[in-house]
Structure formats: C-alpha cells, structure tokens
Amino acid sequence: MELVELLRIFQVVFGIGLVIFVHEAGHFIAARLCGVRADVFSLGFGPRMFGFHHGGTLYQVAWLPLGGYVKMAGEFPDPSRTPAPDELQAKSVGQRFFIYSGGVIMNVIFALVVFPLVLAAGVPVLRPVVAAPTPGMPAWHAGIPAGTEILAVDGEEVYDFFHIPNEVALADAGPIQLTVRYPGSEALNTLPITPVYSANGGFKQIGVRPGVDPEHLVQVLPGGPAAEAGLMDGDTLLSISGAPAGFTPVRQMKWATLRGEAITVLVRRHGEEKEIPIVPRSTPAERRLFGIEPMQNLIKDLRPGAWVERMGLEKGARLVEVNGQPIRRPGDLGTALRSPGEAQGLTVVLQPSDPNLAPKRVAYGTHPTSAEVVGIESDVYLDYDPDSTLAHASPGRAAQLSGLESGDRLLTVNDVNVQSWGDVLAITRERAERNEATEFTVERLGANTEPVTQVITVTPQPLIQLDFGFGLERASGIYRTGGVAESIRAGAMASWRFLTDAWMTLQKMFLREVSTENLGGIIAISTVSYDWASQGWAKLFFFLCMLSINLAFLNVLPIPVLDGGHLAFCIVEAIKGSPVSERTLGYSQVVGLVLILTLTIYVTYQDVLRLLPTGP
Fold first, then answer.
1. Given 80, 386, 489, 564, which residue has the most CB atoms within 10 angstroms?
2. Are 110 and 191 in contact (CB under 8 A)?
3. Is the CA virtual torsion 429, 431, 436, 441 positive or negative?
4. Distances in Å between the alpha carbon of 556 and those of 97, 522, 596, 600?
5. Burial of 47 (0-12, 13-18, 19+ CB in 10 A)
6. Where do the H-state alpha helices sit in 339-411?
7. What is the residue-wise DSSP string for 143-155?
8. DSSP-derived secondary structure letter, 206
9. Looking at residue 229, what is its pLDDT?
10. Which of 107-111, 516-520, 559-563 has the highest mean pLDDT?
11. Is the Cβ–Cβ distance between 472 and 216 less than 8 Å?
12. Beta bridge partners of 60
C-alpha cells in the first residue's frame, strides 16, 4: 500500500472519528455543566481497543466504528433507590433535555464554525458544467447543449455539480426553474424543465452529467502512448485529424476511440499550436466476449426539427437504411448522412413499429449540410429494443468472424429459446466467462427475402482494449467566499441547506419519490470520505460538515434509543408531570433497537451492493 493511500485512510478515520467525537463531546459537556457524572466516553461500540481513566471517566476507543456513546451515571432509572445528586435521573426535565440535545447542538455548531473556514479557504468543486444531456430525458428535450453552466435550481445557488441532482430530486412536483449560461455567452437564461422519476437512480432526474473543462484541457496518463508522443497535461485540444466536421473536441475523442486507429491531435501550448501523432496501445484483457450487440436502430425518441420531418422519422419505428447504408448503431446515422455516395438526394428506409406493415421509403431532394448532420444526430435518439433479439455483429470480433451477420435474429442460444435481449445476455455472459464455444440459431433474410435458419458456433475472444493515454479534464475549480461576513453567511446557508435537504429526503422517501436504496451507511460514508479526501483537507472538511449536519438531523428524530427518543420522552414528562412508565420505556427501547439494527443491516446491504461490479 502506497504512502498516499495510507494518508487518505488516516484522513477518513480521523474525519469520521472527529464528527463522532464532536457529537459525544456535546453530551459530555452538557452533562458536566448540569453536574452529571460521566462513567464512560467511547468512540465506537463493543470491546475496548484502548483507553484511559481521568477524573472518574473512562475515555476509550472501541472496536466497532459504528458511532459512539457517553455512559452517564444513573442513565437507567432504578425505582428501588433515590438517585444520587450527580446522577442523570436526579436532574430536572429541562436539564435532561439539554443533556440529550447536547450532541445535536455540537454537531450544528461544528458545521457553523467549520463551513465558513473551509469556504473562505477555498473548496475544490466540480463546476456545474454539463455534458451532452442523456437522450430522451428532460434536459435533452429542452435542448440544453453540452457546455451549459447551471447556476441555480429554483433560485438555490449551484456552485458544485453534485448540488444539481440533489436540488432536482428534492424539488416539488411539477416544473423547476433552471438559471443557465449557455456556452459562448455571458447572458443568464431561465429555463423551465420538468424532472422525471428514474427507476435506475431512485429519484427524479433531468438527465445531465458533469461536463469537461470548457477550454478542453488535456489530462495525460503517465507512461501512456500520448505521454510518450509528447502530449502534456494542460494542453488545449483543438482538433483530431479526420474527425467529421462540426464535431466538438468531446465528440472527436469518442470518434477516435471507437475507430481505434492512429490519430494526429492539434493542441495549443503556451500560445503555440502543435501537431502530435499518437498511436493507440492495444492490450488483451482477461475478459472474453462474443462480439454480439443488440441492433440499436430503434427510434426511442425525437426532438422536433426540419430534417426530422423531411426524413419522415417516427418514434417507435426502426431506422433501417439511410442513403442505402444500413443503420445498426447510433453512429451509423451520421456516417450515412456524411457519405451519400452517388445519390442525388436523401433516401431513408423505415420499418414501422407494427411489424405487419411494409417498410416505409422516404426521399428528399437535397442533402443536409455538415452542421445540419450534427443537429440531426443530436435530435434522433437511437437505442435497442429490449424485447427484440435482432443482433449486430461487431466488426472484427468473434461472432462476425464465425459468420454471424448484423440483422440476424437470434432464435436460440445453446439450444435455449431466447425471447428478449435479456435472455441473450443471461446465457452469453456466463458462457463467455467460462470461455465456452456456443451455438447460435439465427434467422436471416435470404436473397429472395424468405427467412433462412442457420446454426453458427462462436468461440469468445479476449477483449482488446485500445488506449490513447489521454482524456479531457473535468470542469473543476475552487469555490471561495470573500470576506468574513460573506463566509459566515455562506456557511450558515450551507448548514441550513443540508439540514433541509435531510428533512426533504426523508419526506420524499415516505412519498416514494426517492428510493430507500439511496440510503448509505458506514461503508458509503467511508467511501465518499476517501474520495473527497483525495481532493485535499478542505474538501474532506466540507464533507465532514455535511456529515455533521446529517448526524444532527438523524439524532433529533423521535426514535427510541436515539437522542430524539429521549427528547420525546422528556417532552411527554413535561406535559404530563411524570415520567413515562418503565414498561412503556422498556418496550419502546426494544422497538427502537430493533428498528436501528434493521436499518443498519439494510444500509450496509445497500453499501455492499454498490461495491459489487455491475454490467456484462
């Protein structure tokens, strides 16, 4: 393990321990102020790891890092005797309320003090600059271009990208108002947009992802092909040789990666332009594949546009051909539009959503310009039909080399009938992992258009990974407040923001607008702490302030065993003039303990699921 990793682990342990220490210190200080003796001050639960005695109190660190506690004298009522003056039960309702709320108060104070310091020092942020929106999602329908900066959501300032999904997920039903700045413009625009619930994410989304630095700065992998060719961190990528006209540097990068051939990049360095040839490095991976993909020519969604109408495109239809060239994947559309061949006009072949209808042919007298082709590609969302088994054989991969052709319909895989692409994946993933030759029974249109059935045996091949050794930097920056007053105001606003976010999240979970699968426990907290610690102490302390606010909110909930449960019993005692019965207290503690243990097991299970690998 490298020294850097050890430092980050230390930062995580220190950070989480600090938040727990602050909370328990709140109880401890409140107890001492009220004259209550504290027998144990513990970070963690279970057997003691190490500790020491001082002033009648055992200070210890325990083995289970799931929280902490302060054991106060007389914490549990004993009706057989009168409590001593320095025991908890001898204190008034108001004093006990103060002691139980001490942890929450200290967590809030911690955030109110540390937030301004961190914001004044400067916090690394992922600027709220978006990449090309996810096709079919609200941001895509709204026409938000890549490079747009989102500055506010419903009036709430956004200075870090992670604020955007939070604000969208917790917004009221109906449209939200985005304050945006489009690329190349200084003007601010207000854009109404209605989020949609995503079953995959478990909350409302608009379909935006973090974008790259607007200057298209290059990030180079040490020892990779780009570094060996002379490309340097901080170079500005201007273009890649051979990329289609109108492509942004981001799309040029994707285009080059898909082709996997040698490229020449044009960059600007210290005001001078340089051309640097780069040859990708191919590395066989342990993972094996058959090289079969679903046909991605189903028109899932469309944005209105002149060329969409001219081409006769319809949602739900299959885009079979454009200018005589077959469409099998989304990238094929742009290729066909840019290479019309000898055709005098534009020709399109569509298969309507009703398979009983004949293919529809559309002809238009002129070709779109290069800029219009880019627009068409953006306005047409092509994807695969999960209920179809139409296959695309990746060029040069095992399936194509064995004779399987794009457009073949898979009937069986290893003698098992397949009705959907999910059926295909379930079999092929397992057999590819075991490197087993597999028989595919396919239905193919013959020369006379009558279907012909064939059996093709395919042996999976190692995945060849092509790497240029460079990418584009994310749109990162430093968020810093100016002056003491501004820092205090921003710190207070941040504390209030995360407190209300916690409350709104709980509400949305009860309304089933946010899935409980998004809950995280100690594993998730440690993982996020580790990631944020890699960005420096300021980022880590920003997260610890968020964690402290959330811990305060959680502990104020009226759940027996938690501080909030004790506070609720104090309120009941103040109203009725006497403590709740021992029986009621005992039953409620059992219920609270079971609830907390169940929640702990559930969030730990969700944490483990997030750590497990997904995908084929």
1. 564
2. no
3. negative
4. 12, 19, 14, 17
5. exposed
6. 370-379, 398-401
7. TPPTT-EEEEETT
8. -
9. 95
10. 107-111
11. yes
12. 42, 51
Single pTM value for the model: 0.84
Query: Helical H runs in 284-401?
Result: 306-310, 330-338, 370-379, 398-401
**Which residues are within 8 A (CB) of 390 and not within 5 positions of it... i.e. 6 or more apart?**
294, 295, 407, 408, 409, 410
Evaluate if residue 384 carries a pLDDT over 70: yes
Q: What percent of the chain has pLDDT over 70?
A: 97
Nearest partner of 154 among 195, 119, 115, judged by Cα: 195
CA–CA separation, 121 vs 99, rounded Å?
Answer: 34
Domains present along the chain, CATH in parentheses:
3-122+524-611 (no CATH), 218-279 (2.30.42.10), 300-382 (2.30.42), 389-463 (2.30.42.10)
- From residue 441, alpha-carbon distances to 221, 288, 458, 495, 559 in Å are 44, 21, 11, 61, 59
Examine the pLDDT at 470 and tell me if it is beyond 80.
Answer: yes
C-alpha distances in angstroms, 470 versus 221, 253, 464, 576?
Answer: 6, 10, 18, 69
DSSP annotation of 285: E
State the pLDDT confidence band at 298, using cuts at 50, 70 and 90. Answer: very high
Handedness of CA 372, 374, 375, 380 (dihedral sign): positive
Edge-to-edge strands of the sheet including 438-445?
416-417, 409-413, 438-445, 451-458
pLDDT higher than threshold 60 for residue 616: no
Q: Which residues are catalytic?
A: 24
Residue 305 pLDDT > 60? yes
DSSP 593-606: HHHHHHHHHHHHHH
Is residue 279 a contact partner of residue 264, using CB atoms and an 8 Å limit? no
How far apart, in whole angstroms, are the C-alpha atoms of residue 607 and residue 613? 12
Beta bridge partners of 452: 444
Strand partners, 196: 205
- The distance from CA 327 to its chain's CA centroid, rounded to whole angstroms, is 31
pLDDT at residue 615, as a whole number: 44
Tally Cβ neighbours within 10 Å of residue 184: 8
User: SS3 of 82, please?
Assistant: coil
- E strands, 147-241, where? 149-153, 156-157, 176-181, 189-193, 196-198, 203-205, 218-220, 236-240
Assign 533 a pLDDT band (cuts: 50, 70, 90): confident
How would you classify residue 386: left for phi > 0, otherwise alpha for psi between -120 and 50, otherwise beta?
Answer: alpha
Rounded to 5 degrees, what angle do the CA atoms 60, 62, 63 make? 160
Whether 335 shows a pLDDT value over 60: the answer reads yes
> pLDDT grade, residue 188 (50/70/90)?
very high
